[in-house]
Amino acid sequence: MINLSDWTIRPIHSDDDIAMASIIRRVMPEFGADGPGFAIHDPEVDHMSNAYAGAGCAYFVVETAGQIIGGAGVAPLQGSSEAICELRKMYFLPEARGRGIGAAMMHVCLQAARDMGYQRCYLETLTGMDAAQRLYERSGFQRLCAALGNTGHFGCNRFYIRDLQS
């Protein structure tokens, strides 16, 4: 758990599922990511705590004043090497943005991935999520020309990977 001034990053609990699903369904349409091929339609959205309870998975939420304002997690990249995880469902409400929360969350997620033995971390995003892409690049992610694995998120058009050993 990380406590910074007025907000805390902690592992997700089942009590957080409704709030996190609401955040995902509110934020993704802001960026045009509500059609087919986007994570908003993944079955796990309604049961995030359960979906990330298994081996090789972790999901964290940001809480302030008893309210969930965002979250992110890591899990195995489907259809790829066991050494590669995927940064998943990193979304924050507007009031959480621009406060350093994304960078802190990235640190927590990448450390969790290292602790679980992953060697690389992959992520998918799309044109228009410019602030997120700047965060990824500041966090050491390198842009890829094509998707890895089999996420089912064919609506995404930007792909990144990061070595976790550095």
Which helices and strands appear, and what pairs or packs with what?
Elements: E1 2-4, E2 7-11, H1 17-30, H2 48-51, E3 58-64, E4 67-76, E5 84-92, H3 101-115, E6 120-125, H4 130-138, E7 142-144, E8 158-163
Parallel strand pairs: 5-6
Antiparallel strand pairs: 1-2, 2-3, 3-4, 4-5, 6-8, 7-8
Brief overview, please?
25% of the residues lie in helices and 30% in strands.
Can you offer a commentary on this structure?
The protein has 4 helices and 8 strands. By secondary structure, the chain is an alpha+beta fold. It has a single domain, classed as Aminopeptidase (3-Layer(aba) Sandwich). The chain has an 8-stranded mixed beta sheet.
